[in-house]
Amino acid sequence: MSDITLGGNTPLPDVEEHHEHHHPFLQHHFEDLGQQHEASTLGMWMFLSTEILFFGGILAAYWVYRVLYPEAWAIGAAQQIWWLGAINTIVLIISSLTMALAVRNSQLGRRMGTVYMLIATLFFGSIFLGVKGYEYMKHWQEGLFPGAAFHWNEVPALAPKVQLFMTFYWCLTGLHALHMIIGAGLLLWFIWRAWKGHFGPEYYGPVEIMGLYWHFVDIVWIFLFPFLYLIHGAHHG
Amino acid sequence: MSSLTLHDVRFVEPEATRNYITHDYGALSWLLTKDHKRIAILYLFSITALFILGGFFAVVMRIELLTPEGDLLTSDTYNKFFTLHGIVMIFFFLIPSIPAVLGNFLLPLMIGAKDLAFPKINLLSWYLYMIAAVMGLYIIITGGVDTGWTFYTPFSTQYSNTHVFGVTFAAFIVGFSSILTGLNFLVTIHRMRAPGLTWYRLPLFVWAMYATSIVQLLATPVLAITLAMLMFERVVHVGIFDPALGGDPLLFQHMFWFYSHPAVYIMILPAMGVASEVVAAFTRKKIFGYTFVAYSSLAIAFLGFLVWAHHMFVAGISVYSAMIFSFLSYFVAVPSAIKVFNWTATLYRASVALMTPMLYILGFIGLFTIGGVTGLFLAAIGLDVHVTDTYFVVAHFHYVMVGGAVMAYMAGLHYWWPKITGRMYPEWWARLAALLVFAGFNLTFFPQFVLGYLGMPRRYHAYAPEFQVLNVMSTAGASVLAVGYVLPLVYLLWSLWYGRPAGPNPWGAVGLEWATSSPPPMENFHETPVVTWDAYDYPAMMKAMGETQNV
Amino acid sequence: MMLSDFPLWPEQASTIAPNVDALMTFMCVVCGGVSVLTFFVIFILAIKYRRTPENELAQDYEPPKALEAAWIIIPFLIFMFMFVWGSWLYFRIQRVPENAIDIYATGKQWMWKFQHSSGQREINTLHVPVGRPIRITLASEDVIHSLFFPVFRVKTDVLPNRYKTMWFQATKTGRFHIFCAEYCGTLHSGMIGWVEVMEPVDYQKWLAGGAEGSMASQGEKLFQKYACNTCHTNDATGRGPVLQGLYGTNVTLANNATVTADEDYIRESILNPQAKVVKGFAPVMPTFQGQVSEDDLLKLVSYVHSLGTQKTTTPVVPVETPSSSKTSAGSPLNPGAGIPPQQDKGATP
Fold first, then answer.
1. How far apart (Å, rounded) are the C-alpha atoms in residues A149 and B495?
2. Is the ipTM of this complex over 0.95?
3. Where are the alpha helices (DSSP H) in C113-230?
4. How far off is chain C from B45, nearest CA to CA, in Å?
């Protein structure tokens, strides 16, 4: 594993002339890297608080109907293949571990270690998306996509409410998957940057922030898994 | 006007040969700029254009309402006009007005920073705004939307056959523009303050922007997800809010107002911040009860999240929840009252200069007070049953939004115009416009309180004949108001070429933004300022003045 | 221009109206007074301390800090007084008197349909007797509307998925506006009508003309048409619960929860029978969602209501009412000569 110090053999990004003596990734309006790091970290935390309210809004609606129609919610959850969700949960937790290791590697200035761990994170993220895609395909075939394609009718009286559950299922997991896809795109970019040796002990902030985002998406799933896959257990015994 | 110029008291930047306007030329240097000042100018042009558009809808509506019969517009067109007036004015003018123009320009200057924390995100938020605005314009040209700006279900999801999806999508996007602005401001205020600029030395405008940003950050995502569910429901035909499919239309109202009530504070808190700045500058005093005014902004931001259901007292909530929300609504009125009384007390033994910004702000205090106290009428639930959904409500929120937020925006624009452009506006024309706006506004909206109590419902294309006299008065006022808004458009543009050069500090005001040249250089300050004094420290400044005069 | 063409204060035509106007007057005096006082102080200070060559610099003096406490505590106490008064009034508006006459209203784009319990139907016009409390049960067939009587100072939103109730007692005869106050689409401003307040004798005459049988009796026909009576029999032998004496009682459900059998519960049980199944019965009833119009639903509900009051004469108490005691305290009872006290009189043929 080659340890490459920063600044030496990395290509310089465009910076303003009077800051040439500074770190290449220090933006001109910050005093130093410390301030820049603190600002970006705080910015990511605030972005995540927005995200919490974003998911919180739809989860609040989910809970309103969960209280109104507990039977339909139990039936809806029973339509899910719980062990696929469980596998995905484990896969995501592992990907969080590799993400944390990527941050650690970049802090220690291990260039290839960072690259490998980011690739591993991307790999597990892709597995998650693959499994999710398979579930989506199955739901589509079973007529569990809401709207005109919805054909589930085992208990006619409850069908509209089960459809409501499936609406929340698709919206919640769809939003989550969208976040995963954005995360995967970011990971690709970060793998390239890490390979170029942009990160190191002085400048690992972006990897850390990427990690915050990834862990957040992971935690959202930790909530979605029981809400969407496991709640029927509470009613059937 | 006073001949005193106090700008040489602390430190003054050398007159820059190149400022942020002359720093670079060409359209691309503006469209790809990351400078907060230039982005503020981009916003200034965009929101002015949309203000004119929203104003056009208002004027046509007022002309329609001259007669009880619906004779100028068809009812469908009228419904589209009030919907678009609301959407354009709220999402595309009021919410970005003070934060995205004045806040963007001044926040880094006021705290001695070179820029906002995330300049690229700042530019991105303008582009999001523009994408949404262009979508909105496209929809207006191709047929508009008729749901009212509140998008109530099931009308918006099941019954309206206008461009509901496009407009809600535009509102969804502009919401993210607002979130990113708020996020940028919060991080900037936390991390970018000049050395020595502690929290209690911050100008009250910064406190107000801080509180505003919290609301933008935490309320807007709920609107975004609510509109996303509405869009999903409309496209896929599911029943999240459709009673026939097990959904509940009231849930939409709860979620919508969870954002849209705090959104009122996104509009009014920055206005209060401007009022504090202007009152301090034109009385040459520290705002009385600085800490109370600062914390009342945070209190309003917090309590604003707890009162959403007071829009729903007749919509179908239980008697006890109505009582709780009524109680909390009275609670949120207290910090607003604190501010009004503190501004009033600041005038005591002051040196009051009745220049245009101060005229606007005195008008703001008056109109905001009326808007605020009529909110107390609406919070009295037994009375709300009669006046809700009538013109009383229309008058109330126009007193807060136009009499409050727009008056303060005009005050701020005049107050900081010399800083933004380096030129003075023509004082006498500006005073005339301020008086026209004040008089026209009252003539337009005061009769609407009476109309509302008489029982004229909102959003009526045609109305009962006995309401005509008051409606004619209102329309007459609207024409005065329109003149009052056109005048600044003319003389402010005129001043860009013919205005008197302003110099760094034409008002003799304290505050870091007045310590740099006008217009400010690209990097705001040649040297990072070190702050050793409190906000609005006029006494210390006066003392320093005396010493320099003695020398 | 005559003064009557240019009113500044709406007519008072209900028992509630003077109470609402009293609160309104109080609010105007207090809020207006404080506002005018504040403007006056600002005006005086701005003139007295205006900037002159002698007054270039503000004086280094601040008013006492105790003022802060004063203008936090005093407004708060005033606000609390407003809160209590407003809530008291709200309770009065929500609490339906026991002897109210029932009228059923349906809002649809863009008309108001009213049905009297004796079976009279009318559109965009509502005939009511003066001096008797009127309870209106409302439903919407499509979007949200809001039934608004300015002279009575009451309004309530009308929702497509649940019943709402409102009440008033008119105090003067005449013809007054009805408005829709919640935006409901193209002809929202055309969804208006008139309420005709009549002397009880005239109302009685009006009712006698051209009814198709009472609402409850029409509901009974529907009850047979939809074959409800095959399961809901008069004795306990049917597959469904007995409906006689049901209305207004507490029902124990399969999950041991209890609900009050009010209009909303009856409506829900017709449209969505599985939602709240009565304990001891199988969930076998089919849904009637989409098969019964809102008008007919109201008739069915009215019929079940009339069955309920056949045995017991439990007064109609709205769900929201916090305590049923002293309900009629604020509403002087008017004998209202010759008026059927409840719709059930017409329900028994």
1. 62
2. no
3. 200-208, 215-225
4. 33
